[in-house]
């Protein structure tokens, strides 16, 4: 860890001020897609940020912004064999005042460094990387949709590129950032999503790394997501253990708003026990709710048995997923061991909690309400 | 699956006979490393095999052998974000008769296809891929070490290359094969390896995919392997659950040879319960042992409690790991919750079982004993 800290300092000293920029030539510029027809992750902007790390060259190299282009990797690169890869998901929002803001980027940087340690990849100085990313977004600022239903998705990625087989820590890595204008994450006509909760599949487990944003947490979920699609369902609700604990939904954290045993409204979400990703939207929802002080809030385990009992007593008011890509996504039903539980999320009230949460977060993100969580990118320069 | 089967047939029909070869030019040829100084996975041969899959173009494309070269990937390629990647490990051996053989490749192909299904990647016809790989090895045949302590490691790799973010099945994939002359997998002076068994880390779990050869099973192990190295130990013995079941050791299956309650010699190895990789060396050792009929054989769970009791009664004779990369690797000690268990694997007998197993397997692989498991590559053409 001593060594990593040193190299982190090296990055701190050299990074943003060393940033080199190579602008795309006119023929490299891509047409911008229709903002009303954006599909998640299909369109990329004109530029990208790259920072190489080579232990043999003293650690982190000069950051470079270049035209968006393919990456050349040795076929033996560890990222291609052993999933030595991790990422983050962030967004830039074009505010009602014309300013482009990013949301709590320091939390993404902290999580990304925790992920890096878990894979034996080098850590870096988050503040400097935020500055470099803001410069990248600034260069591609015309790609930030002029729409409050859309945003520019930011994908920092860190991969191990040592050209050698054998499961071992990397001496060379590449940190890069790409940008995508995005609309809604889910391609759904109805607003509330349907979930498959099948206890035969597990996403993460104690002693594993379900609380890190590693590539290895995602690939194995694809076949289960296909299974859900084949059943006409939209996402997977991941259960864990004999009690069928609710852990995550698709790529989101999960919340339940219900009437507790004392007749009070209560918002619950699974605790950060190592099985779930410590979501930044999750954390923000908990912090906002505590500030409101309008209902009870609890981080605790939720079992499927409890959900079944509560729904049968009409005490579940809402369930929703929360994450950067989807923001807040209401849940309409859960398919579980042959039964379908209907969740009245979008129907029980004209002012559901998920809507209030969504509005509050987007008010901050799009600058409708000034808030320290959303900082204009030009302030980072 | 219907679609996959069709495409698999497409590959069958087109593949080996369609194989295109682009030979490396003289200036692209690499010097061959000293056979006595081979490090695992550091040296690559002059050529590689590539087969692209594009659903939009009807599935698998023409296989090509090209000079060894970098792979160009879109920075949004799913392999770089979501660990949509899997591989196999095989070897080609230069026999005492000069013929080059591969060992039970059909088993690798079957496992690779099971891995592909688990990640939503396309399956393929294994027989045709074996033919293409044999042609590749034949072209680079001078890279197969002239040594019975070395071999040519074959690494078939399948990655998802769709240039789009979002956790979803791939419409485009790349199957490639690279080759490395290799010596011993472990860089160890003493023959018997030392293991760290720390129950706070888990490799795989029920409902996951520990029984598939996916990249996602390896990246998360690197930090734990670093922990072992810091403690001066060579590999990790992966435990599972409250009973601290032995599952795998490093990248190998594990075997224990001991005196059972009835005073008989017995070889045990954990069962294929979904937590461990169904190793081809493991399967071969079980099959050979059954043929010998010299001792009891059992596939069953082994707990650390049992290992402690048996060692205290001097009833553990040997423990060894088994896998393609290491073949058979004797275990000398296990560090577990503050105690060190000494395992007399290399010391209890002048003719230990692990040595007999190793000799039998290598006799087959190097053609010293004719056997249907080891087929000369020229027979596949």
TrEMBL record, chains A, B:
Gene Ontology terms: biological process: L-leucine biosynthetic process; L-valine biosynthetic process
Pfam family, one: Aminotran_4
Keyword Zinc annotated: no
Keyword annotations from UniProtKB, A to Z: Amino-acid biosynthesis, Aminotransferase, Branched-chain amino acid biosynthesis, Pyridoxal phosphate, Transferase
One example GO MF annotation: branched-chain-amino-acid transaminase activity
Superkingdom as given in the UniProt entry: Eukaryota
Catalysed reactions, semicolon-separated: L-valine + 2-oxoglutarate = 3-methyl-2-oxobutanoate + L-glutamate; L-isoleucine + 2-oxoglutarate = (S)-3-methyl-2-oxopentanoate + L-glutamate; L-leucine + 2-oxoglutarate = 4-methyl-2-oxopentanoate + L-glutamate
Cofactor(s) needed for function: pyridoxal 5'-phosphate
Listed GO CC annotations: mitochondrion
Family: Belongs to the class-IV pyridoxal-phosphate-dependent aminotransferase family.
Name of the protein described by the UniProt record: Branched-chain-amino-acid aminotransferase
Organism: Gryllus longicercus
Species lineage: Eukaryota, Metazoa, Ecdysozoa, Arthropoda, Hexapoda
């Amino acid at each position: 860890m001593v060594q990593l800290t040193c190299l982190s300092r090296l990055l701190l000293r050299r990074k943003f001020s060393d940033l080199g920029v190579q602008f795309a030539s006119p023929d490299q510029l891509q047409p911008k897609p229709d903002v009303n027809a954006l599909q998640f992750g299909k369109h990329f902007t004109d530029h990208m940020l790259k920072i190489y790390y080579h232990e043999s060259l003293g650690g982190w190299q000069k950051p470079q912004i270049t035209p968006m282009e393919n990456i050349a990797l040795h076929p033996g690169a560890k990222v291609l064999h052993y999933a030595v890869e991790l990422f983050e998901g962030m967004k830039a929002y074009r505010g009602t005042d014309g300013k482009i803001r990013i949301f709590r980027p320091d939390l993404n940087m902290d999580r990304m460094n925790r992920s890096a340690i878990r894979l034996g990849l080098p850590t870096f100085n988050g503040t400097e990387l935020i500055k470099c990313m803001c410069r990248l977004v600034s260069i591609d600022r015309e790609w930030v949709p002029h729409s409050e239903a859309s945003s520019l998705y930011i994908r920092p990625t860190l991969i191990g590129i040592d050209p050698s087989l054998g499961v071992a820590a990397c001496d060379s890595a590449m940190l890069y950032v790409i940008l995508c204008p995005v609309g809604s994450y889910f391609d759904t006509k109805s607003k509330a999503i349907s979930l498959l909760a099948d206890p035969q599949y597990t996403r993460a487990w104690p002693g594993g790394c379900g609380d890190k944003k590693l590539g290895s947490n995602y690939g194995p979920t694809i076949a289960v997501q296909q299974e859900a699609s084949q059943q006409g369902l939209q996402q997977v609700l991941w259960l864990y253990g004999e009690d069928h604990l609710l852990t995550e939904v698709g790529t989101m954290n999960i919340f339940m708003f219900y009437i507790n045993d004392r007749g009070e409204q209560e918002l619950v979400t699974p605790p950060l026990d190592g099985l779930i990703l410590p979501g930044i939207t999750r954390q923000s929802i908990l912090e906002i709710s505590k500030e409101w002080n309008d209902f009870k809030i609890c981080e605790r385990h939720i079992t499927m048995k409890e959900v079944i009992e509560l729904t049968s007593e009409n005490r579940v008011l809402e369930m929703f997923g929360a994450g950067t890509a989807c923001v807040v996504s209401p849940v309409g039903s859960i398919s579980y061991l042959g039964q379908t539980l209907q969740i009245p999320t979008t129907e029980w009230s004209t002012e559901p909690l998920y809507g209030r949460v969504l509005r509050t977060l987007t008010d901050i993100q799009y600058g409708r309400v000034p808030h320290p969580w959303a900082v204009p990118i030009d302030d980072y320069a």
